Amino acid sequence: MPRLALSEDFFTDFVSLQRPVQKEVTDAIQMFRSMTVPQLHASKGMHLEKLERARDRRIRTIRITKFYRGVLLAPDDGSELFMLLRVAPHDDAINWACKRAYSVNGATAGVEVRNVDALEQMETYFEAKAVTTPARLFEAHSDTVLRDLGIDDQVLRLARVCVTADDLTVMAPPMMPADQYEVLWFLAQGESPEDVWEQLIAPRGQTVRTAADRPVVTLAEAILNTPNRMVEVTGPGELERILTEDLVRWRIFLHPAQRRYAYHPGFNGPAQVTGGPGTGKTVVALHRVRHLLRTGREGDRILLTTFTNAMAAALRDSLALLLGEADAHLLERVDVTTVDSLAARVIREARGSSPKPLSAAAEKSAWTRAMAREELPWTDRFLSQEFRNVVLAQGLRTPEEYLRCVRRGRGTQVGRVQRARLWRVMERFTADLASRDSATYTQLCDQAARLLAESGPRYRHVVVDEAQDLHPAQWRVLRACVAPQSDDIFLVGDPHQRIYDSRVSLGSLGVNVRGRTTRLRLNYRSTEEILRWSASLLDGQPVGRLGEDDEDADDGGRDSLRGYRSELHGRVPSARGHGSQDEELRALVDQIRTWIDQDGVKPSEIAVCARFNTLVDAVIARLRRERIPAVAVKDDPGPEVSGVRVATMHAMKGLEFRCVAVVGLTSSVLPFAPQVTPADVDPVQHRSDLLAEHCLLFVACTRARDALAISWNGERSRLLDPVAG
Ligand SMILES: Nc1ncnc2c1ncn2[C@@H]1O[C@H](COP(=O)(O)OP(=O)(O)OP(=O)(O)O)[C@@H](O)[C@H]1O
Fold first, then answer.
1. Running DSSP on this structure, what letter comes out for residue 70?
2. What are the binding residues?
3. Which reaction does it catalyse (predicted)?
């Protein structure tokens, strides 16, 4: 019987087909799998045909309907493993098939595809273009070095005529073979061949460093080596399962860098995945939970946390989707919740009830009350930050501890006498809240962490999404939830998306990820145009590494978006200023109409975001007046609710939309002065507050998949200087 593997491109085609055609495709695949190879060749209905003009002599087509053809790669290695590459209308299928060639990567031993015709044209073009430029992009690397990293003859010739990284990006996949492109891209970003080997080749299981010494890999072996782009249909019922349950691609095809951590057999302690927006960190966290569930013992419980209740609900749905029917029963062993909700639950369980969490406005009033009887030199904001970022961050209990502590992350000196006064105000603040049976969220976490430390761990594994915004008190809750052991904590996050004031040294909280950390670089969400544009908003910003609140590190402890890229392409984002808010909203209405009417985007796939709720409300009112359905994200509209989604920039965290408009980016709201501590009051806090404003804009813009439009009225925010200067 022939075996069959389905490629990622086939999935893309299949999803876009009408249901009756999908049924015909499924029937054709079933028929294919029920025949012997000789029967297949003889079958008139199947019409397995070799294409004379095909660049790859193993390419075949099969008949699906009168109009549709399947494109296959037939085995020539003695195996019976066929690959279904595409399903498309007759002419498109033939045209596509004739130009492709499949090969086995010499280093990763995975299957790759290239557009031979297009690459040959590139070769001619770049050869001529490079004649006048002696300096070449990869001149520091010898042919042997490149070959050892899997670069083959054709790609080597192309690499040798690249002058800039932009030359390389012109040939990005699907033109160039994906694994080879990734190697060249990493080198072009300044990574050493050793690092490329460590990050891209070794994790694929390759142990032989030199190309000449490697054994030949057959096509069938290579197909099985490429789980990021191919899946073999095995066993009865498997096809139905893949084509019904698994149509969401992230469920099957993981990038090797994602798979390496998601399905790691066992980390000897906490492990961490970082990466820019849209690199699939949440996807990795979900797969990790699946792996831990499948390999764990019956009674082992898992805690999966994220930042907001809405995100927790979405994460629970995604996990159920990933587990599918077969593993649905495993869901019972997982709690998906925010750390704050967990903290409240822990307190309730221990004491029968939990204090009411305090809103930001109520907290402000409570600080004002605490200061009322004295003439003090501090603002409520200063006190709130001192309490949160020093006292609760370090879990200080007594005035003596506070007097002795190093006030990390604070840029002002506070002497002994002042500390004693500050402590008294903070005591009044906590006593006042206690008398009202109320507490800040961070206080709740501080209390819960202590209770958990006494009662002992309650989970076997903790998996953390959006780790960048957690406060040390929240980390203490998580640390106390699980005993220090293998695979105890798995965290994913992006320091470039830190929009709340939480600086953390994970090591000092007992979450040491050294040697168990990786960075994802391929963005699956946005186009390269949106990515580059958004990344430039953070140019030169001092983004610290995740969980390393270490201003004294040699390199400043900085993270970077180096090597961050997307394989999708589209329009460059637009940035427009307007004379008034009315004019800006009128332009917004036009933009949304264009997206809906001309680009065929559903209203629910469009988001508009603004810094504050007042503008959010104004946008909703205006859109409705113009008969464009609009709903507020804070009202939690389900997927079945139509209408443009409108939200504050903070509420955009973790979401994604085909089109995003960020409006009202005016100098008075970004940076928002009341949110930014003046530099002369506290220079360290000033830098941190300002960075959070930059990150907020970055988060909002990187929610867009295909299109991004930003606008302002009156004076433009200076945070837009890098893109709108
Ligand atoms: N291996 C994959 N194949 C296909 N799509 C993927 C893959 N990994 C992630 N995606 C898709 O990319 C998008 C972003 O993924 P995800 O939300 O996990 O990224 P993230 O890094 O957590 O993003 P952010 O930090 O911006 O919230 C989602 O639409 C997801 O389905």
1. E
2. 275-282
3. ATP + H2O = ADP + phosphate + H(+); Couples ATP hydrolysis with the unwinding of duplex DNA by translocating in the 3'-5' direction
